[in-house]
Amino acid sequence: QVQLVESGGGLVQPGGSLRISCAASGSIFSIYHMAWYRQAPGKQRELVAAILSGGITYYTDSVKGRFSISRDNAKNTVYLQMNSLKPEDTAVYYCGNYNSDPHQIHSWGQGTQVTVSS
User: Fold this and answer.
1) DSSP-derived secondary structure letter, 25
2) Cα 93 to the center of its chain, rounded Å
């Protein structure tokens, strides 16, 4: 089972940018499909973005044009670049891997807190 560790969260002002990372253990990271989720207080965890092993990406409507998911297979790492951040982006962000359905995550990281506030 792959182990995932998120990093890079923090406090950022509205309109600012942040890049969070998710490092995976194991030597077969390149075949994983990866996803970023977020969970705000009192809300369900929601899918934010996903990237297939071949690089095709998906974004939920609320982050299209602002967030960008990417991966570096040589570093076993997936990234989420977040621009034009809004207070409603405040959440704990989690990464996960999946086989075919991004709503069926196999392994989760521990999460990284992103707070957007002035």
Assistant:
1) -
2) 6
